[in-house]
Amino acid sequence: MQADSEEQPESSWLAMSRDAFDTSCDYYDAEVRKQVEKSVSHFHGKHPAGSKYLSAAYKFRSKGFRPKTRAIIRRNEAAAAAALFSTVDAVDIQPELEMDEAQRVSAVLLKDLLAYRLDNSIPWFRTALGAYQDSLTTGTVISHQYWDFEESSNYTPITQDDGEYVLDDEGGVALTEDREVVSDKPVIELRPVENVRFSPASDWTDPINSSPYLI
Question: What are the domain boundaries of the chain?
Fold first, then answer.
């Protein structure tokens, strides 16, 4: 009985996870997938699955597709690029109160920090236009923001002035750990809508924050 009680929480969590994934997949397949695949096909200049042009009745007829969807999206992307990247500065940050010296200094500092990150560690041009393209193609944008921090450890023996090694409590050679920062930067990753699952009962105006789970 004790073994069963210890295994019950894990099996219960696994069952809940499977149910959540299956429910969200059923909802996506029934309500979302068809429209997303249709929108993506139009963007790539193809007839979507289920189109009459792909049926046997149109086997020997023209299947030409006028790429107006892609042309419109590309035109809007060009307008967005001109609006976002027509100036040298990536962002413009102004203090709320010009009379406050602390706010002025803070605004200048934040502007320089953001400009450095958007120019160096974050491919801001591709990220911004990729997100805009997703919004025009599928009607939604899903991104994951996190801080990528990674360290590596190097161990070197501790030596005395005479060159002899220092021993630890167990009689082995004492080592000192040197940490080196390998990566320390913010990251923005765009996620395809078909790779994200959320609860069908979530608020349609804010599914990310209202869903009890995200997969």
Answer: 1-66, 74-139, 142-215
Query: Considering the entire predicted model, what is its pTM?
Result: 0.75
In angstroms, what CA-CA distances link 186 with 116, 117, 124, 183? 11, 8, 12, 10
Asked if 127 contacts 189 with a C-beta cutoff of 8 angstroms, the reply is no
84-90: list long-range contacts, CB under 8 Å, 24+ apart.
Answer: 84/128, 85/125, 89/115, 90/114, 90/115, 90/118, 90/119, 90/124
> Closest Cα to residue 187, out of 150, 214, 134, 153?
150
Spatial CA neighbour of 142 closest among 42, 36, 70? 36
Read off the pLDDT of residues 8-18 as tens digits, 9 standing for 90 and up: 577 888 888 89
